[in-house]
Amino acid sequence: MAWTGQELFEVGGTWNGVLQRSGAVFDPSAGHWRRIAGVPGSIGLDGAVAVATPGNRFRPQLFVAGGKVAALYDSAANRWTTTDLPRQLAGLHLAAAVWTGYDVILAGTSGSAAGPKLAVAAYKVEDRRWRMITPRLPARHPTGAVSVVATAHRVVLWSMWSRPARTPHGGTILSGVDVRVLHDHVVQWTQMRHWPQHRVVAGAAFADFQILIPPGRYWCGGCPAPHSQSPARFADRRTMALTAIPASPLVSQPAVWLWNGNTVLAASQSGSSRAAPDGRLASLAAYDFYSHRWRVLRRAPGAPALATAPIFAEQQLLVLTLHGRLLSLEKRP
Question: Which of 80, 176, 228, 262 has CA atoms 20 to 30 A from the CA of 59?
Fold first, then answer.
């Protein structure tokens, strides 16, 4: 699913174990769905990434990349157009796709016998052209995982690296996090120093002036990691200064963290099962950025089985269930 700012896109998924290429759009103002053209067969939907590309100069569109091909859906024409991914991305695990307002930034990683690697490309929607923008990282910092977020006028990339090393008493695993920043209309990444090391950065989300950094487990690549976990934090979009968020009141650790500029939504999920492969939505809580307080919210009726991760659409939480129901939790006066 992807939110354009006005509508909700849904594509792919499985039904009775069969991969689907159908799609639909939900208009909250009208309260109804409409079908859209199916995703082209050249797109590998298993492990695909997607991002909506709304903007003043473009009609709302959906970008989907999977395998060796990407496709852009034009909602006005109800048509997909495809483009081959740059050869540097072919065969990589597509880890992230973000929208800057002009470009889609696509990042891929790969672990192989030759060592993990990272490739990052920008796709300009206006003229539909690719350019490689992979940041230069230390040679002895092979990327094992990557996270990317687009803020106002900047793209921030976290590269989590690890490698084995010999010691006088045997061996160990060295690890850390390299952070790079790309400014609008600049083709060179700059290094960000003093970022906390050894914590996973995943699911970062930007709205207004803050980046939400969800709680991160200890990162050391292939080592048996302890179960310690850092708290959720805000990072200032200009200075990247970190501010801790108080612990959530939910009994179980939230698995879903969403942010819309004034409220953080945290949701815990039950474990996966045959009836709910992606788990069930359990407890919900909201953190108000201005009052610095948490509030436990009403549970979704029936502990619904999730079809995919929930989406924070402006002032409402949208949850697509495994059986095709769309649930909405709205903030009201």
Answer: 262
Of the listed ranges 45-54, 95-104, 167-176, the one predicted with least confidence: 167-176
What pLDDT, on a 0 to 100 scale, did the predictor assign at position 211? 97
Same domain, 205 and 299: no
Q: Which of 228, 248, 268 is the last residue of a domain?
A: 248
Cα–Cα distance for residue pair 176/174, rounded to 1 Å: 7
pLDDT at 30: 86
> Which residues, in sequence order, are bridge partners of residue 236?
210
Name the band, by pLDDT with cuts 50, 70 and 90, for residue 258: very high
Average pLDDT for residues 122-130, to the nearest whole number? 91
The whole-number pLDDT of residue 324 equals: 86
Give 171's pLDDT tier (boundaries 50, 70, 90).
confident
| DSSP-derived secondary structure for 142-172 | -EEEEEEEEETTEEEEEEEEEEEEEETTEEE
Indicate whether 276 and 128 sit together in one domain: no
- Give me the domain span that covers residue 70: 2-248
Query: Do 141 and 262 sit in the same domain of this protein?
Result: no
User: Does 49 share its domain with 168?
Assistant: yes
Q: What is the reported pTM? A: 0.91
Looking at the structure, tell me whether residues 269 and 144 fall in a common domain: no
What separation in angstroms does the CA of 153 have from each of 186, 209, 238, 310? 10, 12, 10, 26
- H helix or E strand, kind and range, residue 285: strand 281-288
Task: Put the strands of the sheet holding 316-320 in their side by side order.
Answer: 311-313, 316-320, 326-330
What is the number of domains present in the chain?
2
Domain boundary among 248, 280, 314: 248
* 185 and 267 share one domain: no
Burial group, residue 7, by CB count within 10 angstroms (0-12, 13-18, 19+): buried
